[in-house]
């Protein structure tokens, strides 16, 4: 059995090691046939007065963003449940999770990405996650899509998302105004503005070309703006990734590098350097996630935000739920009833409002009060489109991971002019496993 578990773990690590990004928990690898550890509280009753300690892993890649808010969330939880002590550490990244899997030393709770990728489904398949369905958690505040994020084969496996992630253009209003550039109403105005900024000696858009995920944000923003319908059709098997709109979108990213819109040294620039170039005025804009809003607000600049518009002026943004508060329970946890209480607290308005007030995210639940007017600006778009990474993940197999090929092969080659948009689309098409019609 130990050998079998080790083989399953290695297979899971090999297939999905690249999917988790600062953007786990597990059983004995017998496809969920083992009874979960601990006592199941099917009636949602309060856990006993036993003093227990729960080990919780936070998102190491986003520690700077989340540390203060989770101090407050965890303090409020422990005030409510004084017999439950939390050992909360920002310890989770790809490497630590994979090591914990192999060593069978997982924490009681850890963050997961729901249906953003197929990672959680694989963990469920191999019996690693606690089924939360018997606890009858109160989900009345959540929409069906939010419930679906945490559901595999009709069963619930994590606390629910309550915030929306997307990629927008953050811009320096003062630099835009000084150079006669405004937030664009359509695609042509967007490109004309970039040309003006470049002519003024500025880097139009700061890009972290050295960072695998951060250099992908322009693609993630361009994909729904320029090729949403084609991506939807490809995911359904009604079209292909070689669609001219997808090839054009990929070529546009290369064109931005060729035209110098990302500056001269972006290939050697990491995320922190790209952010600094923007906040110190060397770059007029940066394409980043809504989760980074607080960082730019704290810089003190005259900050503006807009989604990339298409040629008709329609603003279609990548849609994705935030995984900042979506946690699962290891099937090996000795205190599942108490761990469920932590998930219930993360599902509460109290915890969600603490995160909103601290970080400033786009709420998906109406009773969460937006932090400020800037948050409302982040939510100004016409349509929530697809996430290209999720589309490619859906078209991937264990043998051929199209999403991984985008990140590790296609984007680097586009940045270095080693491939064209049409060639890149063909590479992704070859890797894709389309659903049967």
UniProtKB/TrEMBL annotation:
SUPFAM superfamilies: Periplasmic binding protein-like II. It is found in: Cell envelope. Residues 31-42 have a biased composition (Polar residues). Residues 31-51 are annotated as: Disordered. InterPro entries: Bact_solute-bd_prot1, SBP. It holds the Pfam family SBP_bac_1. Gene3D superfamilies: Periplasmic binding protein-like II. Residues 1-20 form the signal peptide. Keywords: Signal, Transport. Its main location: other. PANTHER family: ARABINOSE-BINDING PROTEIN-RELATED, SN-GLYCEROL-3-PHOSPHATE-BINDING PERIPLASMIC PROTEIN UGPB. Belongs to the bacterial solute-binding protein 1 family. This is Extracellular solute-binding protein.
């Amino acid at each position: 059995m130990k050998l079998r578990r080790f083989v399953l773990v290695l297979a899971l690590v090999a297939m999905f090691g690249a999917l988790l990004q600062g953007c786990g928990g597990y059983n004995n690898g017998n496809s969920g046939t083992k009874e979960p550890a601990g006592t199941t509280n099917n009636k949602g009753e309060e856990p006993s007065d036993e003093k227990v300690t729960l080990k919780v892993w936070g998102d190491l890649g986003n520690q700077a963003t989340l540390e203060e808010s989770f101090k407050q969330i965890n303090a409020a939880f422990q005030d409510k449940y004084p017999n439950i002590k939390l050992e909360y550490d920002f310890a989770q990244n790809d490497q630590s999770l994979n090591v914990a899997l192999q060593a069978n030393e997982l924490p009681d709770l850890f963050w997961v990405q729901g249906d953003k990728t197929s990672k959680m489904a694989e963990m469920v398949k191999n019996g690693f996650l606690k089924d939360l369905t018997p606890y009858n958690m109160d989900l009345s505040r959540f929409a069906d899509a939010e419930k679906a994020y945490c559901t595999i084969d009709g069963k619930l496996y994590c606390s629910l998302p309550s915030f929306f992630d997307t990629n927008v253009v953050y811009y320096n209003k003062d630099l835009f105004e000084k150079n006669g550039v405004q937030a664009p109403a359509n695609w042509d105005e967007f490109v004309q503005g970039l040309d003006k900024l470049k002519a003024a000696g500025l880097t139009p858009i700061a890009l972290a070309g050295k960072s695998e995920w951060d250099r992908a944000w322009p693609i993630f923003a361009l994909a729904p703006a320029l090729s949403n319908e084609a991506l939807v059709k490809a995911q359904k098997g009604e079209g292909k990734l070689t669609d001219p709109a997808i090839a054009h979108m990929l070529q546009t990213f290369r064109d931005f590098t060729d035209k110098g819109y990302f500056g001269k040294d972006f290939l050697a620039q990491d995320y922190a350097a790209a952010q600094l170039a923007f906040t110190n005025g060397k770059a007029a804009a940066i394409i980043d996630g809504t989760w980074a809003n607080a960082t730019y607000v704290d810089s003190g600049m005259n900050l503006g935000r807009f989604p990339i518009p298409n040629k008709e002026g329609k603003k279609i943004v990548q849609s994705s739920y935030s995984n900042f508060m979506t946690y699962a329970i290891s099937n090996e946890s000795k205190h599942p009833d108490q761990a469920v209480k932590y998930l219930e607290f993360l599902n509460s308005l109290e915890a969600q409002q603490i995160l909103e007030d601290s970080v400033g995210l786009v709420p998906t639940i109406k009773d969460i009060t937006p932090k400020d007017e800037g948050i409302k600006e982040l939510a100004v778009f016409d349509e929530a489109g697809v996430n290209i990474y999720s589309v490619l993940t859906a078209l991937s197999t264990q043998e051929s991971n199209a999403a991984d090929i985008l990140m590790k092969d296609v984007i680097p080659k586009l940045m270095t002019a080693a491939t064209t948009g049409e060639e890149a689309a063909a590479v992704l098409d070859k890797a894709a496993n389309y659903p049967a019609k």
